[in-house]
Amino acid sequence: MKTIRKMMKDSKGATAIEYGLIAALIAVAAIGAMQTLGNSLHNTFTNISTRLNGASSAN
Predict the structure, then answer these.
(1) pTM of the full predicted structure?
(2) In this predicted model, what pLDDT tens digit does every residue of 23-32 receive, in sequence order?
(3) How wide is the angle at C-alpha 37 spanned by C-alphas 31 and 38, nearest 5°?
(4) What is the pLDDT of residues 3-58, one digit of tens each?
(5) How large is the C-alpha radius of gyration of the chain?
């Protein structure tokens, strides 16, 4: 009976799981933001490259 009461009072495992879930959520949000930023940067550099190639072939 004492063991069961002790287990009911121990919240370390639940706290660890909560921190793990928070870390996973932050990781998912960071990956999504990086993918969006990566696509935006890719489009920007492609645009710059196209303009530079057009300017160099015009001369």
Answers:
(1) 0.55
(2) 999 999 999 9
(3) 85
(4) 666 655 666 777 888 999 999 999 999 999 999 999 999 999 999 999 999 887 76
(5) 26
